[in-house]
Amino acid sequence: TAVAGERCSCGRGFPTLERLEGRTKEYIRTPAGKIIHSGVLGTLLFVRQDFLSRVLEYQAIQTDLNRVVLKLVPSPLFDRTAEVALRSSLRELFGAEMQVDLDLAEHIPREANGKRLIIKTGLS
Q1: pLDDT tens track, the chain, 124 positions
Q2: Within a 10 A sphere around the Cβ of 45, how many other Cβ atoms?
Q3: 77, 60 in Cβ contact below 8 A?
Q4: What is the 3-state secondary structure (H, E, C) of the chain?
Q5: Half-sphere exposure at residue 63, Cβ-oriented, CA atoms within 13 angstroms
Q6: Alpha-carbon Rg of the chain, whole angstroms?
Q7: Which residues are CB-contacts of 116 (< 8 A; sequence separation ≥ 6)?
Q8: CA 100 remoteness from chain centre
Q9: Which of 51, 94, 99, 115 is the most buried (most CB within 10 A)?
């Protein structure tokens, strides 16, 4: 999915892409109906909160309608202050009705195709 930008200056009238948000199957839906794509989660971690040097890999797993586990591989710079800031940002992003747990891991397994999904869901 993407967000349309301004009309192209070439004169053809088609919109440009402002930003990509993520794959259509890679999203989390909160109990309030908010849709959070992988691009939104990445923007939170690496643009709004500068975790680029603190998080090596991450994956959000929606295990229930109101629960998400953020699995992350921390760098040596990930400390208690970073954890508190991350938890606060995640509460703001997902909303108070969503329980968000952190799972610090040494690595995040790849899928059978060799890729690592940013968002996985166990919901049907």
Answers
A1: 566 778 877 877 777 776 554 455 688 999 999 989 888 888 888 887 778 899 999 999 999 999 999 999 999 999 999 999 999 999 999 999 999 999 999 999 998 988 888 999 866 4
A2: 21
A3: no
A4: CEEEEEECCCCCCCEEEEEECCCCCCEEECCCCCEEEHHHHHHHHHHHCCCCCCEEEEEEEEEECCEEEEEEEECCCCCHHHHHHHHHHHHHHHCCCCEEEEEECCCCCCCCCCCCCCEEECCC
A5: 11
A6: 16
A7: 57, 59, 108, 109, 110
A8: 12
A9: 94
C-alpha 1/C-alpha 73 separation (Å) is 26
Report the C-alpha gap between 98 and 36 in whole angstroms. Answer: 12
